[in-house]
Amino acid sequence: MAGFDQTLRPFLWRAERLYPDTEIVSRTHEGIQRYDYATYSDRTARLANALTDAGIETGDRVATVCWNHHRHFEAYFAVPSVGAQLHTINPLLPDEHVQYIVENAEDRLVFVDPSLVEKLESAYDPSTFESVAQFVVMGESVPDTDLEPITDYESFVGSHDADYEWPELSEDAAAGMCYTSGTTGRPKGVEYTQQMLWAHTMATLTPQGLDIDDTDVVMPVVPMFHVNAWGMPFSVTAAGAKHVYPGPSPDPEDLARLIEEEGVTFTAGVPTVWLGVLEYVQEHDVDISSLERIMVGGSAAPKSLIETFDQEYDVTMLHGWGMTELSPVGTISHLKPEMREWDRDSKYDQRGKQGLILPGLEFRVIDDDGEEVPWNGEDFGELHIRGPWVTDSYFGRDDANEADFDGSWLKTGDIVTVDSEGYLTIVDRTKDVIKSGGEWISSVDLENALMAHEAVVEATVIGVSHERWQERPVAFVVLSEAARDRAEPEAVKDELFELVRADYPKWWTPDDVLFIDEVPKTATGKFDKKVLRDQYDDPDLLEDAAPEDAAPEDA
Ligand code: AMP
């Protein structure tokens, strides 16, 4: 029997004792901040005291609405290690989703970035935020705001002692929480226990995972507000490696400069980010020669991206797949030993797949008849997955729990093939959502918004492939007969764009609205989006290219 539970705290204890001088660098609203694990550990203990003094107790949820920086990283260890639950909130969500999430999670305290105070203010609603007793701005001062009571982080933490008696926690204690967008439009909460995050950390550290060690300088670009920044704040600490946090809405230049100036060896983010960085480094004089590997995932990585980084910059792109429900990493496309001798093209083909399951997880692929598909790279079915860092339920969502789980198996909603070597390839999604630049857009929400227009009889929205954002929403609308006789479609189109913009972030606005006579239906009368996808999944059919301001980071 183990004498001590699997919890996060020992990772920090080890980094503090073995690597006290290793740096943590952060681009913040106030400029570049730099300190070491010794100082980090000291500040984390002060934060733990501050949380306790603010009345945070075991099991309470503490929310963050923050970019990637050292203060957010301090919350990553302090909150779970006092026995509370770190609830990261995605600031790119529509206000009504943020309201739902805060109310559903009953957050007690909210950390918010200075540049996101306005966003939080816009989402703030006294009834859904009733549980929140304190707001803390992640900086040295408080901007002008109606949120209250509110203080700044440095005052909140500063007056507290660096001695903190960390409690002995159970590995079953809730440590984290993140909401994911669901088919129904309403976000679904996923809770992480100490043990889930511990197991995920250990698996991602291995060479079959992200292969991080103490020689690495790691820059997580994947947001800390979305799926734990792929667990990197924990795994990089466990390895005793140097952290580099790129701060509020980094652009390709910020990222390229941080790679050059801090000697980044490993970084991670969605394909859109790397397409932008690639364009920047190809056109500017910047030295990214320290960079050895990039983890790319969240959406399918184009093969050309993997190829270009490899050939022009000698950077290995590790294509991975994951989900909020998996803490989040599930697969990485490493080459098996014999494949390393293959010709270039075959190697890129293989690395372009979503890859091999991490050690510790199991999967099966189930077809429409409920049978497991053979590993032949052709037959496809829904991916089911289970393991120590895969959740077995959503928070308070019995409806979704019934639909999305089969015993210990999570039904991922991703349609995959498996080749004879066990490499997974995602070929489709059953989830009715669109992923643009790595962030979800709910097609159901958009459809409801469009159908509120008096001239609209039917409306449906699909994701169309896009070179930069991977997917962009396109709406298909059937107008009423009266409207068809009367209206000018262009005018209706503008009104529909306005309707969406009124309630949703502007990057949710469809790239185009196409007027059709009828939405294709399935045998049971449901909208058959597959028919539309087959017919229209061609970016050239669209009138407008995705506008520059369609970026999620622009929300
Ligand atoms: P999230 O929970 O927001 O991280 O989204 C998880 C979903 O993103 C998965 O179920 C997939 O549909 C999609 N996804 C994640 N990684 C990839 C990838 N490498 N290729 C294609 N889709 C991906």
Describe this protein's structure.
This protein is of the alpha/beta class and 555 residues long. It has a domain at 432-550: GMP Synthetase, Chain A, domain 3 (2-Layer Sandwich). The protein has 17 helices and 26 strands. A 9-stranded mixed beta sheet has the order 2-1-11-10-12-13-14-15-16, sandwiched between helices. It is globular. The termini are far apart. The model is unreliable at 544-549 (pLDDT under 50). Adenosine monophosphate is lined by residues 180, 227, 297-300, 319, 321-324, 328, 354, 412, 414, 426, 429, 435, 440.
Strand content bin? 15-25%
The proportion of residues forming helix, as a percent range, comes to 25-40%
Number of continuous helical runs: 17
Tell me what the CATH architecture of the domain at 432-550 is: 2-Layer Sandwich
Distance between the termini: 50 Å
* Bound ligands: adenosine monophosphate
Q: Which structural class best describes the helix and strand composition? A: alpha/beta
CATH class of the domain at 432-550: Alpha Beta
Mean pLDDT: 93
- The name CATH uses for the topology of the domain at 432-550 is GMP Synthetase, Chain A, domain 3
Shape: globular
> Low-confidence parts, pLDDT < 50 over ≥5 residues?
544-549
> For this entry, what is the oligomeric state of its chains?
single chain
Biggest pleated-sheet summary: 9 strands, mixed
Instruction: Report Rg.
Output: 23 Å
Strands of the biggest beta sheet: in what spatial order? 2-1-11-10-12-13-14-15-16
* CATH homology-level superfamily of the domain at 432-550: ANL, C-terminal domain
The strand count comes to: 26
